[in-house]
Amino acid sequence: MIRRRIVVLALALTLLLPVLFTGCGIIEIAPPEASPAPTPTETVPVVPINPAWTPPAVTGNTTAIPAPAGLPNIADVVAAVKPSVVAINITVINVFNQSQEGAGSGWIIDPNGIIVTNNHVIEGANTVSVTMDDGKTYNVEPKDIYTDALNDLAILRINATNLPALKVGDSAKVRVGEWVVAIGNALGQGISATEGIISRKGVTLPVDQGQTLYDLIGTSAAINPGNSGGPLVSMAGEVVGITSAKLASIGIEGMGYAISSNTAMPLIQQLIKNGYVVRPWLGVNLRTVDQFTALAYRLAVKKGAMVSQVAANSPAANGGLQPNDVIVAAGGKDVNTADDMVRIIIGTPLGQTLDVTYYRGTEKKTTQVTPIQSPAPAR
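Now predict its structure.
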């Protein structure tokens, strides 16, 4: 029996030749390289949405909406939350000059037109639009899209006020077994809801080579293409997660995952206040070394993080790192994958020097690098 285990990001795509869902609508989205990218050529300064913005107070998931006979009152939760969930529609022109349409979800975090979604929902889009629960549609300008690809988060700003913003709950306080509802634009057919329970907490999930999501909430609520970016809410009607991915495998039911609210909120705050997420940066792109990579590049090692690109005048360049170098240790920790190195970089305080061990060809070398603040992305 053939077994297949696939992690998919829940974005629905259609191909306009004619308009049909591709298969079941589940696709794999290629993530960016694993490490913070080298400094791009900046053409337009990043203009943050609101440097003084503070996130809504965490309410704590303490009082659920009352339910008759001790049952979860899911209908009342959906009625309270649904007006704050939006459908996100995109178009992408592919290499064959064909137009593809994509569908995802989002939710209102601030009454002044600020919407949360996943980066993979809008990544590479030529056009982005947001449709509210009342049917009103807003086009989103490229300058009003703020993303953090590493953690699969994005902020959209639309020209609207007095919107119904959702409350944010404390994801650390939800318990395995508690009821939750996933609300989103499933299959691009409009906002719908599915119920389930919290099945796991603190999940680490590699979604593709070079990208791993951390502190995810696993749920039995059905997650379908188009749900990406929508809220996972508690019985108090509070957002405890942002729907992001599902695990599909032949012979078993799919398992859905959401980025926990406690992980997402500091990043969302940075996207709104700064226009991008500030984190330690070395200026390298990395790829995981596997047997194929080791053979293709005739590497001396079969695991590690291979440098694919180095930004000029970056800490990595100043430390002497070059493309095709393979990092095997940094900061006193072994580096077996690109993700290992990314976690070490992000976990290193700005200004603290890292000892790095790497191979150049068959020669083992050491150097020192000092992460600096990540530069603003090009717009």
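Residues 261-274 form the longest helix (14 residues).
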